[in-house]
Design a protein that fits this description.
Elements lengths: L1 H34 L7 H8 L4 E10 L2 E10 L2 E7 L6 E6 L3 H15 L5 H11 L4 E10 L2 E10 L2 E8 L2
Antiparallel strand pairs: 1-2, 1-5, 2-3, 3-4, 5-6, 6-7
Length: about 170
Amino acid sequence: MKKNTVLALFAILTAASASAALADDASDKAAVAKQIGSAKITLQQGLAAGEAQGHAISGKFEVDEGKFQLSVYTVKGAALQEVIVDYTTGKITKAEPLSEADDVAAGKKQVAVMAKATTTLKDAVDKAEKQTPGFRAVSVEPKSKANHPVAVVTLVKGAQFKSVSEPLE
């Protein structure tokens, strides 16, 4: 009897945690959708600006600690860093090494995928936007699908989000 109660409690807590994560994601998306109109530069321009600090391996518009920003992860040699690009001017406002364990792990995965890529994230974002008229790219992240590199591009139009995968080879 105790075992069933513990399992039921675990299932409830797991479901609640998943619901909270989905709610946070929906809240984050709504915040980005609300703020994206204030961005004078595109995700592609942000990726290009980040290249001054190393090879761009991902990028996204996000609301971090209540502040809207454009974040680009880069790699130079073995050094991973987050580059914050001013979304109105395209100038780098901050560049610092990735230090949080989950950010470093994500960066390493992105580097591994981009090592197999023969095209850039910017080109993938350009293609995704061309295929989805009226939508604007808000993030790009390299992933491995069936052992092939792809860019997962998230786009927004109003409050509607769409994700598309573009090959990176």
